[in-house]
Write a structure and sequence with these properties.
Layout (H helix, E strand, L loop, with lengths): L4 E5 L6 H10 L5 E5 L11 H16 L4 E4 L9 E4 L2 E4 H6 L5 E2 L3 E5 L2 E6 L5 H18 L3 E5 L3 H10 L6 E3 L13 E5 L9 E5 L2
Length: 205
């Protein structure tokens, strides 16, 4: 399995300079992950307006590199729609129509990686739908499995325990938790897009 270079970030909160930095850095990575809070509920602009502008920026990013996004508690723009046995925000469902964007409530095989994105605004039972599916695919294929999820730490531990066999990479919005890393996946982690705070993690090898 070849190395995959992943840029993982969170809490962009409608900061255009941070989105622009992501777009500039995108050619250096195989995958960009944004783990929650793309919008800012305290911003003067409504979350609907923010969602329109963020959608445009993420599509620009996805024209360069695959992008995986999961929602956070700030991302409640517009109405909810029923999607795959759970309620998701329509702007994120629409965003996922782009062939290079993996968004809330999706499971995708990306090269040799299984990627699951879990919505913030749904129940533990609904979240477990995607965890169970990801676990099934990992058992069938033996491929590494990454889960993107914004959660309160206790909930994250409960969800991981429910799956009985935790993911290889389990990324919350806060502290990084990594379960049983498989070899040959390279991760470049940035904290709030401050390059001097970034740190590289190479799993295995």
């Amino acid at each position: 399995m070849e190395q995959m270079k992943v840029l993982l970030t969170a809490d962009l909160h409608f900061r255009f300079d941070w989105f622009r930095w992501l777009i500039e850095q995108a050619p250096n990575y195989d995958l960009v992950c944004i783990v929650g809070d793309l919008l800012d509920m305290f911003e003067v602009k409504s979350t609907r307006e923010q969602a329109r502008e963020v959608t445009r920026l993420i599509k620009r990013l996805a024209d360069i590199v695959p992008v995986a996004v999961c929602s956070g508690n700030h991302d409640n723009a517009g109405g909810l729609v029923s999607h795959d046995r759970a309620s998701l925000y329509k702007w994120l469902v629409d965003l996922g129509a782009h062939p290079n964007i993996i968004t809330d409530g999706a499971i995708r095989k990306l090269e040799d990686l299984i990627l699951t994105t879990i919505p913030y605004h749904c129940s533990k039972e609904e979240k477990s739908i995607w965890l169970d599916r990801g676990l099934t695919i990992r058992r069938q294929t033996g491929k590494p499995w990454m889960v993107l999820l914004t959660f309160r730490p206790r909930l994250g531990r409960e969800l991981a325990a429910r799956s009985r066999k935790p993911p290889d990479f389990f990324w919350p919005i806060g502290p990084i938790i990594c379960f049983r890393s498989r070899p040959c996946i390279s991760l470049q982690i940035r904290s709030k897009l401050e390059p001097e705070n970034g740190r590289s993690v190479r799993a295995g090898c």
